[in-house]
Amino acid sequence: GAGKSTTVRMLTTLLKPTAGRASVAGFDVVRQAGDVRRAIGVALQDAAIDPLMTGSELVHLQAVLHGIPAKVADKRGKDLLERVGLTAAADRRVGTYS
């Protein structure tokens, strides 16, 4: 009721302010949204991911969305999952992750 979630959504560029201005790291959240996103890292409570995707599929999708070629994404995805200790869970649906 106090507007905490709305404020966080505005500061992470997920929601445009209806009035006033907001900035993060000196960047305007509306006019410089890309700069804001590059300057921050956010782990929201409810991730906007498809719970039916596997860990490997999700990492691959994110890599491709960030312009990494598919073949490179596969290799880097495997390396990343190994680095964070999720190799054994790579083929499980992410909705089963805790």
Task: Explain the overall architecture.
The chain has 98 residues and is mostly helical. The chain has 2 domains: 4-39, no CATH class; 55-96, no CATH class. It has helices at residues 4-11, 33-39, 55-65, 70-83; strands at residues 23-24, 27-28. It has a two-stranded antiparallel ribbon. Strand 1 (23-24) and strand 2 (27-28) form a beta hairpin. It is elongated and about 45 Å long. The two termini are 28 Å apart.
SSE arrangement:
Elements: H1 4-11, E1 23-24, E2 27-28, H2 33-39, H3 55-65, H4 70-83
Antiparallel strand pairs: 1-2
Helix pairs in contact: 3-4
Defining key terms:
single chain, 98 residues, mainly alpha, 2 strands, 41% helix, elongated
Q: What spatial order of strands do you see in the largest sheet?
A: 1-2
What is the global morphology? elongated
Distance between the termini: 28 Å
Estimate the helix proportion, in percent.
Answer: 40-55%
* Main beta-sheet annotation: 2 strands, antiparallel
Mean pLDDT: 90
Count of discrete alpha- or pi-helical segments spanning 4 or more residues: 4
- Beta-strand content bin: under 5%
How do the helices and strands follow one another from N- to C-terminus? Answer: HEEHHH
Pick out the low-confidence regions. none
Number of domains: 2
Our Rg estimate from Cα atoms comes to: 17 Å
Give the class from helix and strand content and strand pairing: mainly alpha
